[in-house]
Specification:
By secondary structure, this protein is of the alpha+beta class. It is 20% helix and 41% strand. It contains five helices and 17 strands. It has helices spanning 2-32, 54-57, 63-72, 78-84, 282-286; strands at 37-39, 41-42, 60-62, 74-75, 90-99, 102-109, 113-117, 122-126, 159-164, 173-179, 184-190, 193-200, 204-208, 217-224, 230-241, 244-257, 264-276. The strands form four sheets. The chain has a six-stranded antiparallel sheet with strand order 2-5-6-7-8-4. A five-stranded antiparallel sheet has the order 13-14-15-16-17, covered by helices on one side. Strands 9-10-11-12 form a four-stranded antiparallel sheet, with no helix packed on it. Strand 11 (184-190) and strand 12 form a beta hairpin.
Length: 287
C-alpha cells in the first residue's frame, strides 16, 4: 500500500514539473516572436501642395495591423477610388501576402485604399469603416455635409494653378483652371508655351495630379442644381502622348433615387471614349 501511495506522489510531482516546463517553454517562444513592421515610402508631396508631415514620414504598420485592415476592407471600383479616396504620396509595399487563398503583392496607400496584384490582375480594396482611420494617414473623403447634402465648396479664387511634370522630363509644367461667367477654362503650358486651351461648361473643375495608372492627371468635373447640391460628378484620366492630350475612358456618377430603398444614392458608370482632349465634347457624352 505504501508503495502505491509513493508511486502516485511521484507521478503527481512529475506531472506538475512537466506543466511548469511547458509554461517556461511558452514564455520563451512568446519572447522570441518578434513583431513585424512595414515602413512606408513617400514620394514627393501631396498634389494639393500640402507638405509631408512627420506623421507621414514615420507611417508604419505591423503585420497584425495589415491583417486587420484586410479584414475590414471591401472591393471598390476605379470610379469610387477617384471620387471618394484621397491619394497620398506615401505607400507601404508588401510582397507575397496571403489573401483569400492566393498570394498578392500589396500596395497600401495612406489614403485608406489597397491595391492587390497577383501577377495578372489588380484588385482595389477600400477601408471605409470607423476602425480604419487609426491605420491610415487620410480617411475616405466624406462627400456629404452635416445634413447629408452634397455640396460644391466655394472657391476662394477664380484662378487655380497646378505644377505638374507633363513631359516626364523632371521639369514642372503648368496647368491653370480659371472660372468665367458661364464656363471654366483649362490652360496647359509646357516649356512656357500654351499648348491647350479648353473651355468646359460646368460648375467646378479641378486637377488631380497624384495619379497612379500612367495618366498625366485627372480632370475632376462637378455639376450642381439650383440648391447648390452636387448631382453629377465626372472623372476623366488624361494621358499626354505624342505631344497631345488623350482620353481613353470617363467615369460618371449621378445622384438618384434607389428603386430598392427609396433613398438617394450615387449611380456609377464607366464609358470607353478614345479621343483627344481638344476635340472632346463632354456635353454630347452627358446627353
Amino acid at each position: 500500500m505504501k508503495n502505491i501511495i509513493l508511486g502516485l506522489i511521484l507521478l503527481a510531482n512529475f506531472s506538475l514539473a512537466c506543466k511548469g516546463q511547458d509554461k517556461d517553454t511558452n514564455k520563451k517562444e512568446n519572447k522570441s516572436q518578434k513583431t513585424i513592421f512595414y515602413t512606408s515610402k513617400c514620394d514627393g508631396n501631396y498634389s494639393t501642395g500640402e507638405n509631408l508631415s512627420e506623421k507621414d514620414k514615420k507611417w508604419t504598420l505591423t503585420k497584425a495591423d495589415v491583417d486587420k485592415i484586410m479584414s475590414l476592407s471591401t472591393e471598390i471600383t476605379e470610379n469610387e477610388l477617384h471620387f471618394a479616396y484621397p491619394v497620398t504620396p506615401c505607400n507601404i509595399n508588401i510582397h507575397g501576402y496571403q489573401y483569400n487563398g492566393k498570394k498578392y503583392d500589396l500596395q497600401i496607400n495612406g489614403g485608406s485604399y489597397i491595391s492587390l496584384f497577383d501577377g495578372k490582375k489588380t484588385i482595389i480594396l477600400g477601408c471605409n469603416s470607423y476602425e480604419c482611420s487609426k491605420y491610415f494617414l487620410k480617411p475616405k473623403e466624406n462627400t456629404e455635409d452635416e445634413n447629408g447634402d452634397d455640396k460644391i465648396e466655394a472657391n476662394n479664387s477664380d484662378l487655380k494653378k497646378y505644377n505638374i511634370d507633363i513631359n516626364k522630363n523632371k521639369i514642372l509644367d503648368l496647368l491653370t483652371v480659371e472660372k468665367g461667367n458661364s464656363d471654366i477654362t483649362l490652360n496647359a503650358i509646357i516649356d512656357n508655351k500654351s499648348v491647350l486651351i479648353k473651355k468646359v461648361i460646368c460648375d467646378s473643375l479641378s486637377i488631380e495630379t497624384n495619379v497612379k495608372n500612367g495618366q498625366s492627371f485627372n480632370l475632376i468635373i462637378g455639376y450642381i442644381d439650383q440648391n447648390a447640391k452636387l448631382f453629377r460628378k465626372v472623372v476623366i484620366p488624361v494621358f499626354y502622348r505624342n505631344n497631345d492630350f488623350q482620353l481613353e475612358k470617363i467615369f460618371i456618377s449621378i445622384l438618384g433615387i434607389s428603386a430598392k430603398t427609396g433613398n438617394e444614392e450615387w449611380f456609377n458608370k464607366e464609358k470607353d471614349h478614345k479621343t483627344s482632349l481638344e476635340n472632346f465634347d463632354l456635353d454630347k457624352i452627358l446627353e
